[in-house]
Automatic annotation (TrEMBL):
NCBIfam families: thiol_BshA. Transmembrane segments: none annotated. It comes from the Bacteria. SUPFAM superfamilies: UDP-Glycosyltransferase/glycogen phosphorylase. This is Glycosyl transferase group 1. One of its GO terms (molecular function) is glycosyltransferase activity. GO terms for biological process: bacillithiol biosynthetic process. Pfam families: Glyco_trans_1_4 (PF13692), Glyco_transf_4 (PF13439). Gene3D superfamilies: Glycogen Phosphorylase B. Residues 17-180 form the Glycosyltransferase subfamily 4-like N-terminal domain. Keywords: Transferase. InterPro entries: Glyco_trans_4-like_N, Thiol_BshA.
């Protein structure tokens, strides 16, 4: 029996530092290694991806700055580029990460193409479409329409699947496919990195990595570490995917100037994950929290708020600690308990690595996407999505 032919896949994501872009980039790289032809379509090359391998292509979206528009428009140029790439490369799948603006642009792109030349549209939800825009009357109907018009929808956690049905009621099934992380080889030894950071051998290196958006609650992160009673026992390393300067005053006010180390837009995060001892995440909400998984892959447990999809990643007391209250004092006590008990920290870390390598392994998750793509291609969805979208819009308007 012959093996199925390689697929031609277009991927659109935010290329900035964030879980959605990192996941989309890693997925594209892995699919290309599996022999599929992968075309990234975005305004910049995705962060953390080196587009110099076989089967990987990048198509930049040029955003014009016309005086006609008060604000520069991205959705329309994106839709045109999606249509061009789909036509010129005979794409089988358009896989977009976020409904707004990517799925909405894809829907317009498909309308530009003959019916027999349209790729299947798969939309992956990462959180904000549901938890923020889905509740906004100015965006919610557009998000709902984009999901209903997609040939298939995925979400990165069961929490997000359930929340999307509750908030948006898109009237379509949502496939849960969790995130994965493929670490690159470590370039520098742990001891070298820690020495470069000024971390003493006796100090526990706490690690936080995120895009610093308000939902990440960097204020709570800093307040928590300021309450750790053994002040000389730790350092906090923040790998910042955004501007940290708004928090500099908090660092000084809390007396953390000698405890906090910040590195901006780090490409090779593996060296720092390997140098760290413990992750710390204090978000108000998370659909999955890829950063926790990145730490788990290196055998580093995390202390985190028990919100959103994080309990699907962290098993409290087995491969990390979940703090339900989100109070800085409670987070500080949990961190203290692991600073004081390296043996327990190692035990949790070993279990964290095992879960990362099994439940969230690259091989398992990428194979699920490949299988899902082929299932969608075999479906006859002509007309169904349009009818469903129209019915939902009329119902929401009434």
């Amino acid at each position: 029996m012959s093996s199925p032919r390689p697929l031609r896949i277009g991927i659109t994501c935010y290329p900035s530092v964030g879980g959605s872009g990192i996941l989309a980039s890693a997925l594209g790289e892995q699919l290309a290694r599996c022999g599929h032809e992968v075309h990234f379509i975005s305004y910049e090359r995705p962060f953390r991806i080196k587009l110099d391998g076989p089967n990987l292509f990048f198509h930049p979206v040029v955003i014009s700055d016309y005086d006609l528009f008060k604000h520069r428009d991205y959705t329309l140029p994106l839709s045109v580029k999606m249509a061009e790439v789909s036509r010129d490369h005979a794409l089988d799948i358009l896989h977009v990460h976020y409904a707004v603006p990517h799925a909405t642009a894809a829907i317009l792109a498909l309308e530009m193409l003959p019916e027999n030349r349209r790729p299947k549209l798969i939309t992956t939800l990462h959180g904000t479409d549901t938890t923020l825009l889905g509740r906004d009357p100015g965006y919610g109907p557009a998000v709902r329409h984009a999901l209903a018009r997609s040939d298939a929808v995925t979400a990165v956690s069961r929490f997000l699947e359930e929340e999307t049905h509750r908030v948006l009621g898109p009237g379509c099934p949502i496939e849960v496919i969790h995130n994965f992380f493929t670490p690159r080889p470590v370039a520098r030894p742990r001891e070298v990195v820690r020495k470069e950071l000024g971390v003493a051998p006796h100090e526990t290196l706490l690690l936080h990595l995120s895009n610093l958006r308000p939902i990440k609650r960097i204020d709570r992160l800093l307040e928590s570490v300021a309450l750790i009673r053994a002040r000389e026992s730790f350092r906090l390393l923040i790998l910042a995917g955004g501007d940290f300067s708004p928090f500099a005053a908090d660092v000084r006010r809390l007396g953390l100037a000698d405890r906090v180390i910040v590195r901006h837009h780090v490409f090779e995060i593996e060296d720092y994950l390997n140098a760290a001892d413990l992750g710390l995440f204090t978000s108000d909400s998370e659909s999955f929290c890829l950063s926790i998984l990145e730490a788990m892959a290196f055998g580093r447990p995390s202390v985190s708020t028990a919100v959103g999809g994080i309990p699907e990643v962290v098993d409290d007391g087995r491969n990390g600690l979940l703090v339900p209250s989100a109070e800085p004092a409670d987070l500080a006590r949990a961190v203290e308990s692991l600073i004081a008990d390296p043996a327990r920290r190692a035990q949790l870390g070993a279990a964290a690595r095992e879960k990362a390598q099994t439940v969230f392994s690259t091989e398992r998750i990428v194979a699920r996407y490949e299988s899902f793509y082929r299932q969608v291609l075999e479906r006859d969805t002509s007309g169904d999505a349009v009818t469903r979208s129209q019915e939902l819009f009329v119902r929401s308007a009434g």
